[in-house]
Amino acid sequence: MKKIADMTMEELAAYICTALEKNGIDTVLSGGCCVELYSHGRYTSDDIDLIDRFNGGHRKIKEVMASLGFKEYKMKRYFTHKDTALFVEFPRGPLGVGDAPVAEVAQRITDTGTLKLLTPTDCIKDRLSAYYHWDDRQSLEQATWVAQKNQFDLDSIKRWSKNEGMMKKFEHFQKQLDNKV
Question: Are strands 100-101 and 96-97 parallel, antiparallel or unpaired?
């Protein structure tokens, strides 16, 4: 097994995800790390966001993380390890994008375990949610990068955008895609 210091972000996330799974905690990678993976490194993140899908309990997560050598940072939900600059965050569940729950989860197999993560479509929705609700232009750019490098379901994103009441901003996203293709 690789040492934590030698693991890539994806390998470290898979290592943690697998350890948690063995202890009955189902987690899914979201946020900037998904963008990093799906944009093939065009965007980089310094934290690993793992959502506890069924809210198995912070105490159990803390025990598993301690067994892997992680220490809880000043605030609950954040963990650090002496051998990596990456920190791990456990945002509150349930797993969703905007007001919609996430039904399908992708998986990637690594040498360090199995990583569960948002699909490219839901990763795009996650980034668009920040653009839609907080006018975060960087998130719009990140959604575009993910869309350029992956197969995704544009009709699903359009339906979701309509449910979020954000068709005008969806049309702007669609124009971004057309201009970047």
Answer: antiparallel
